[in-house]
Amino acid sequence: MVQTQAICEFVFTDAEYRKGIVYYRELRSRHYSQWIWLAITVVFVLLVTDGLYVEYKNGELSDANGLKWGDILSAEAPFGIALVFQLLIYFTPFYGFVLQPFFYGSVNRNQNHLFRIGPDNFMEEMTDSTCSYQWSAFKSAREFPDGFILVLGKRHFYWLPKHGFASPQDIDLCRAFLHDHIKDFRALS
Q1: Which of 2, 148, 155, 169 lies at a C-alpha separation of 20 to 30 Å from 102?
Q2: What is the C-alpha to C-alpha distance for residues 32 and 53, in angstroms, rounded to an integer?
Q3: Looking at residues 15-23, what average pLDDT do you find?
Q4: At what angle do helices 94-104 and 14-29 cross, to 10 degrees?
Q5: What tens digit of pLDDT does each residue of 85-139 get?
Q6: Could you tell me how far CA 153 lies from the centroid of its own chain?
Q7: Domain limits of the chain?
Q8: What is the architecture of the domain spanning 6-29+100-187?
């Protein structure tokens, strides 16, 4: 009998959510927009630092001019706050830190998920709902050592852990479907 679909079934726990978030973040960090944010942050730091250095060299930051460090800090505070905010955006594990509270209130939490990966579509079944996608809906997919990430949009993805597949043949079949139907599919180590 020829197998026509791969089956992946698992309970979507906090650990699975965190693992999916880590891999999704790794996938997104390879995106050019992350490098743009880093470049903007570096340029911003250089501009603020250079401005303070020029003011110091010109004697504008001395106590002799009647300036107090409190005045200087309050003048530079908006730049400092913006810098801290920008660094937090870039370096904070945003998806895990910000999105995890949403997961705790989610109906998907600790619920059994059954995925049917077939030649025509990708289907998710839960206790009280079913969702089906044509392959053309997926933007990209990656295979990691312990699972697959399928990306629908900027912040919408599916995590399929390899331990949820019934057999190695299901993993191979899933990989074949992803390779055949998602243009931007790669295996990452």
Answers
A1: 148
A2: 32
A3: 78
A4: 150
A5: 666 665 555 545 555 555 454 556 678 889 999 999 999 998 888 999 999 999 9
A6: 11
A7: 6-29+100-187, 32-98
A8: Roll (2.30)
- CA 56, chain centre distance (Å): 41
Cβ of 139: how many Cβ atoms within 10 Å? 15
37-96 pLDDT, tens per residue? 667 777 777 666 666 666 666 666 555 555 555 555 555 666 667 666 666 665 555 545
CA distance 25 to 13: 18
Residue 8: CB atoms within 10 A of its CB come to 24
Tokens, residue 27: 């996938």
Check if the beta carbon of residue 133 is closer than 8 Å to that of residue 118. no
- For the record, the structure tokens of 53 come out as 């250095």
Q: Is 53 exposed, middle or buried (0-12, 13-18, 19+ CB in 10 A)?
A: exposed
**Lookup result for tokens 């990989």:** 175
Q: What is the pTM of this model?
A: 0.63
